[in-house]
Write a structure and sequence with these properties.
Layout: E1 8-12, H1 17-28, E2 33-38, H2 41-57, E3 63-68, H3 74-84, E4 86-92, H4 113-127, E5 129-139, H5 152-172, E6 176-182, H6 195-208, H7 217-229, E7 237-240
Parallel strand pairs: 1-2, 1-4, 2-3, 4-5, 5-6, 6-7
Helix pairs in contact: 1-2, 1-7, 3-4, 4-5
This protein binds NADP nicotinamide-adenine-dinucleotide phosphate.
The site of NADP nicotinamide-adenine-dinucleotide phosphate (NAP) has 29 residues, from helix 1 and helix 4.
């Protein structure tokens, strides 16, 4: 069996939701060093404490460090990777709040939709010093195939990121580049909604899915772990959405 033993993994967006689950799963897979990064220093500090506790509790032995990084700031991204040196894998789950709406919306206001998930992800792929056999894993979403009403630009972004991954896989080979495309997953992302609205939205979304429930971050994290571990997969998209694309 392959594992992440002796490997260094950077998770940008690792202080919350899916990224946190990827960082934690990497430690369970015996990664030697996991670096979590996101734009809020308090979240980085809190996450370091949580992950350090996990390694102690389960006697895992991996080292955890954290850095504050705004992936949308090109200078910060270049400095981050220059300082960190060679790594085995980078996972990007960072995402700002997606703007939706289309009819009657000034399209100029939607143009920055691509900043964090497309342009910043491309810059990370360009700047990271990844060892031979290593990988880059990006994050997309089910909207590329099943856009909800009011999301044409976000759907375009999700499709663009999928194409970016295939282009990067060719460009960066033999470094592998893949993408995980989640459907509805219960993370802190939903916390900005009022509780009643959030609960109804989650209940309604779950009811529509083939599996009749929302995903949890840990089961999505398994997909990122697979992409890191399997040295024969590149340029691929793994949709994890409880069957949402079939209903
Ligand atoms: N959860 C879902 O239902 C779902 C469904 C489909 C797709 N996705 C996609 O999956 C990804 C992860 O989602 P999630 O639910 O895990 O989100 P989340 O819990 O909101 O976590 C997002 C992470 O991104 C970081 N982040 C945001 N802006 C950043 C920036 N400029 N630079 C660096 N880090 C930044 C956040 O930390 P800071 O605030 O500290 O920066 C946080 O750690 C997102 O791209 C999301 O669109 C999620």
């Amino acid at each position: 069996m392959t594992s992440l033993r002796d490997q260094t993994i950077v998770v940008i967006g690792g202080t919350s939701g899916i990224g946190f689950a990827v960082a934690q799963a990497s430690l369970y897979q015996h990664a030697a060093h996991v670096v979590v990064a996101s734009s809020t220093s308090e979240k980085v500090t809190r996450t370091l404490a949580r992950l350090t506790e996990t390694t102690k509790q389960h006697n895992l032995g991996g080292r955890v460090t954290g850095k504050t990084l705004d992936i949308g700031n090109a200078d910060e991204v270049k400095k981050f990777f220059a300082e960190i040196g060679e790594i085995d894998h980078v996972v990007i789950t960072s995402g700002d709040n997606l703007k939706n709406g289309f009819k009657g919306v000034d399209l100029e206001t939607l143009k920055d939709t691509f900043d964090i998930r497309f342009w910043a992800a491309a810059l990370v792929a360009q700047q990271a010093h990844i060892k031979s056999g290593g990988s880059v894993t990006l994050t997309g979403g089910v909207a590329s195939i099943k856009p909800p009403p009011g999301w044409p630009v976000a759907a375009g972004l999700a499709g663009a990121v999928e194409s970016l991954v295939r282009g990067l896989a060719v460009e960066l080979a033999p470094i592998r580049v893949n993408l995980v495309a989640p459907g509805a997953v219960l993370t802190e992302r939903w916390d900005s909604l009022p509780t009643d609205r959030r609960d109804k939205l989650l209940r309604d979304s779950a009811e529509k899915l083939l599996v009749k429930r929302i995903g949890i971050p840990e089961e999505v994290a398994d997909a990122y772990i697979f992409f890191m571990k399997c040295g024969f997969v590149t340029g691929e998209i793994l949709h994890i959405n409880g069957g949402q694309t079939l209903v």
